[in-house]
Amino acid sequence: KFKQFKFSMNYGKLLVALSIALFGFACGSGAGTNTATNQQNVPAGTATPAPTPEDTLAIGRKLFKQNCATCHKEDGTGGKITIEGKTINPDDLTSDKIKKFDDDKITGYIFNGVEDEGMPAFKGKLSEAQIREIVRFVRVDLQKMPEPTAKQSPR
Hints:
mainly alpha
């Protein structure tokens, strides 16, 4: 009788352990299953809209307004302006002349400045990534040029 009791007690423990494990698995309390989801009530068949090009230019737009618009105006057209008692004539960034510059040339002007024309260097104020965002904003928003696509690797 003792062996039979011991066997049924071990069987009972195993059954309880399996029940707890199954319950835990069914309720999602297992390791790695406690993740948050961000679901919205969207009617069936409604696709989430892709970000518009204007949304992707937000960083460059903000940086341009903070660092460039005082001289080049918010629309990028530039023109004569007096700053700190000095009259300068910032380039019209929407002109064909500037549109023909490659991105690296414009980036260099922003990074190093153009002392003879009164443009300050932004190398200590803006990172290279921030300057590239400004150039992208100027190209796409102000100059109305198409957004560059990722380069495909040769086959």
